[in-house]
Structures are given as C-alpha cells and as structure tokens.
Amino acid sequence: MIKLVLTDLDDTLIPHSAPGISPRAAKAMHTLLDDGACVGPVSGRVPKAMGWMLGGDESLYQTGAFCNGQIVYLNGKKLAEVPVDSDLLTQVVSYLDKLGDAALGVYDVAADKGATLITQHPERLYGHPVIFSESEGEVSTKVPERVIKCNVHIEGDYQHRCEVRDQLCEAFPDLSFVLPSLIAPLIDICPADCDKGTAVKTLIEALGIDNEQAVCFGDSENDLAMLDAVTNSVGVANADETVASRVKWHIGPSDQDSVAQAMEQIATSIETKTVPSFMRE
C-alpha cells in the first residue's frame, strides 16, 4: 500500500505559467491525506512559496522538501536544514565573474521573493537583463554567512546552461549543480551530499516505511535524485529525455492534470487495496 506521495511542482503538478495548483489536484491531495497517506511537494522553491503555489492550504505542505531537499518537513516538524558552504560560494562568484554571462543568486528562505545577485563587479550585470529576470534587482558584493537556497542566473540557451553546469561540476566537486527545468535561465546549487533524493530517503526513514510504499513524480534534472531514490518513480509526458528514460512509470503531461489523476488512482488503490491503474504493466 502506498503511504508516501511526493511531487515536484513546476511543470509537474503545476503546469508552466499556471497561477498555482488546480482544484482537482488539491482535492486529490486531500483525499490521500484523508486515506492516511503522507503527501506533499518536493520543490526547489523556498517554503514560503508554497502558500501561493498550493492555494494557501497549509495542510498540503506540512510534509515535503524545499530548496531541492535542503529543508525537510514531516507533519509540520522540521527534520533537516542544510546550508551551502559560503566559502565555496565565494569561489563560485569569482568563477562566474570571469565567465561574464552569469551571476550567483542567493535567497532569503524566510520570504518568498527573488534572489539577490552576488558579484564583485556589479557594473557588468546591467547589460544582461536575463540575469536579473529571476531576481529582485538587488546586487551585493558579498555572500551571506548562511545560505540555504542559491543558484546561478545565466543567459543563453539550454545547451549553454548544460555546458556551464558541467564546467561548474568539474570546478567545484563539493557542490551539486543541476538544471531545475528546460526553460528557466537557472542552474540550482546544493551541497554535493544533499538533494531531493536524500530528502526522500529522510522521509521514508522517518515514517518507517518500505521504499516500495513511496511514489515520486518529476519532470526535470533536479528531480532525478528523488526519482532514482524510489522504486515507484513517475515521469510526466513533458519530462526531459533523461527523466523519461530513468523513471519506472509514465503518465500524461502536466498541463492535463496528469499528476492529479495519478493521485486519484493512488487514493482508490489505498481504499480498495489494489494497484493504481498507471502502475499496471
């Protein structure tokens, strides 16, 4: 019986450009909660963003992982909060300054707002509007002492982001660099030993359940660790090629409320002690 249901939000549970969760998806999550399952988001976003993304319904994110797994909650209790090494981030700033078309962005996890950009040469950023597109427009020359959520804000196409990601992975092996989507001009940064996968394992262990009793939904590179961590990994039809090739189960696209439909099937399977329809080979 499924006891833990976790889903990425952007382009998975919530389609690109949608204002938030659909009524159908919210209802499906509540049905799972009523059936005794734990359900929640695993997102690269900060906890405060869950308010507008999940319709202001706090019950839908009492369990989940945020900032790509660096913050983990179970039933409203914080299980983990893992910062990124500020000294390493200072080195990343110097690297990106030399690169020229990218900058480090750091976030206040107690708020829901854009990033503050960090560079030793603020003047170089003002000719690069894409770098500012996911920020508050604020620029600083110093990395804060404690950073939880951060990423690279970068110009260029998807291929360029992949190339820079690979360069950063080689230059900074103690950090993890992953793309949060096929579209966003960002590269997410986490400690090398902390990601959505470690968060899912933390929740499975805390609940005392078997791996097969967890289901995870995702679409992008930053979901791979989570999807690889469970037997029942599920990709939406709009997932990138790597995700599609690695997941066990496949459902329809995000913009057809496919995750909500799958959650409804899981709820039915719990109530009837059967296998969810999308898991029947």
Short description:
The chain is of the alpha/beta class. It is built from 9 helices and 14 strands.
Q: Could you characterize what this model shows?
A:
- With 281 residues, this protein is an alpha/beta fold.
- The chain has 2 domains: 4-82 and 194-279, 3-Layer(aba) Sandwich (Rossmann fold); 86-191, Hypothetical Protein, Haloacid Dehalogenase-like Hydrolase, Chain: A, domain 2.
- 31% of the residues lie in helices and 22% in strands.
- The chain has 9 helices and 14 strands.
- Helix 1 packs parallel to helix 9.
- The chain is elongated, with a radius of gyration of 19 Å.
- The two termini are 17 Å apart.
- 48% of the residues are buried.
Q: Tags for this entry?
A:
single chain, 281 residues, alpha/beta, Rossmann fold, Hypothetical Protein, Haloacid Dehalogenase-like Hydrolase, Chain: A, domain 2, 2 domains, six-stranded mixed sheet, five-stranded parallel sheet
Radius of gyration: 19 Å
What is the number of domains? 2
Structural category: alpha/beta
Counted beta strands = 14
pLDDT under 50 segments (min length 5)? none
Shape: elongated
Annotated CATH homologous superfamily of the largest domain: HAD superfamily/HAD-like
Order of helices and strands: EHEHEEEHEEHEEHEEHEHEHEH
The CATH topology of the largest domain, please? Rossmann fold
Question: What's the architecture of the largest domain, going by CATH?
Answer: 3-Layer(aba) Sandwich
In DSSP terms (H or I, runs of 4 or more residues), the helix count works out at 9
Multimerization state: single chain
Major beta sheet summary: 6 strands, mixed
First and last CA, distance: 17 Å
The proportion of residues in beta strands is: 15-25%
| CATH class division of the largest domain | Alpha Beta
Helix percent reads 25-40%
What value does the average pLDDT take?
96
- The main sheet orders its strands as 8-7-6-9-11-10
